[in-house]
Amino acid sequence: MLVVERHKKIVEVVNEKLSVRVTELSKIFQVTEETIRRDLEKLEKENLLRRSHGGAVSIKDEQTEVSYAEREITNASEKRSIAIEAVKLIQPGDQIVLDASTTAWYMAKEMPDLPLTVLTNSIKVAIELSKKEQVKVISTGGMLQPKSLSYVGPLAERSLNMYHVNKAFLSCKGVHVDAGLSDSNEWQALLKRQMMSIADKTILMADSTKFGVRTFAQITDIQRIGHVITDDHIDESFCRALEEKGVQVKTVEIR
Questions:
Q1: pLDDT at position 68
Q2: Residue 50, pLDDT score
Q3: How confident is the model at residue 72 (pLDDT cuts 50, 70, 90)?
Q4: What is the CA radius of gyration of the chain?
Q5: Which helix (H) or strand (E) segment is 248 a member of?
Q6: What pLDDT, on the 0 to 100 scale, is given for residue 220?
Q7: Considering the entire predicted model, what is its pTM?
Q8: Contact present, 56 and 40 (Cβ < 8 Å)
Q9: What φ, ψ does residue 220 adopt, rounded to 5°?
Q10: How far, CA to CA in Å, does 13 sit from each of 18, 127, 147, 234?
Q11: Which are the contacts of 32, defined by CB distance < 8 A and separation ≥ 6?
Q12: Are strands 165-170 and 135-139 parallel, antiparallel or unpaired?
């Protein structure tokens, strides 16, 4: 396969899968991982994709929301493993907020039926938690985002102002040590920032492909996060950099 053809195919794979690891691309194209890294560097310079540590992520429709159906199957094993670990941080009687990420939805699925109050802007999360008799669910309301099945906007932000929670469980599209957390959608970024402001503690749930990535709308600085849960494919350098900034990092084995 010619180099130009391989580059074209790499972009197609990244756009189809939304995120992909160097090891996977190496197997697909039967070239060394070092060759793939050089390919990704060149393609990033051409603004055809964005490198993340250990792989690459798509920049297709970066400023619009990816549909829930697509997000649900992207890195599903990592998200579910992270969600299972996050559930361990919940205690009976807690008041928590969950965002509209697919990781939060996995968390809602894994959550035991405990006496809790859960505030969320996600229709999918609210429906999942409605199956648990002891969990009290409060929806923010607001402007519906059809692709993510979530509420955003001024009404959602004002409704959050009425509450205080012990813990906020959030995800995002990019985690950068210097640039902080970011999302591809400005409405979601603003709401996540508001969720953090009403919480005593914020727990970030992000798989390893999101580290080293910067997307359209900044949510907050790294220092505002107390705890990060990620998968064990994350590079140790990111863990060290986060811990130097006072962030506790927990890595989980992908199930």
A1: 47
A2: 83
A3: very low
A4: 18
A5: strand 248-252
A6: 94
A7: 0.73
A8: yes
A9: -170, 175
A10: 8, 33, 22, 21
A11: 26
A12: unpaired
The identity of residue 34, as a single letter, is E
- What Cα–Cα distance (Å) separates residue 138 from each residue in 94, 108, 122, 158, 163? 14, 14, 10, 14, 10
DSSP 3-state percent helix, strand, coil across the chain (nearest 5): 40, 25, 35
Q: At residue 31, does pLDDT exceed 90?
A: yes
Only one residue has tokens 């997307």, namely 215
Q: Alpha-carbon distance 4 to 108, whole Å? A: 44
Strands (E) in 54-209, as ranges, are 55-57, 95-98, 116-120, 135-139, 143-145, 150-152, 165-170, 174-176, 180-183, 199-205
Amino acid occupying residue 199: A
Q: CA-to-CA distance for 225 and 247, rounded, in angstroms? A: 6
pLDDT digits (tens, 9 = 90+) for 102-155: 999 999 999 999 999 999 999 999 999 999 999 999 999 999 998 889 999 999
Q: Would you state the structure tokens that stand for residue 92, as one six-digit string?
A: 């009976």
Q: What is the mean pLDDT of the chain?
A: 90
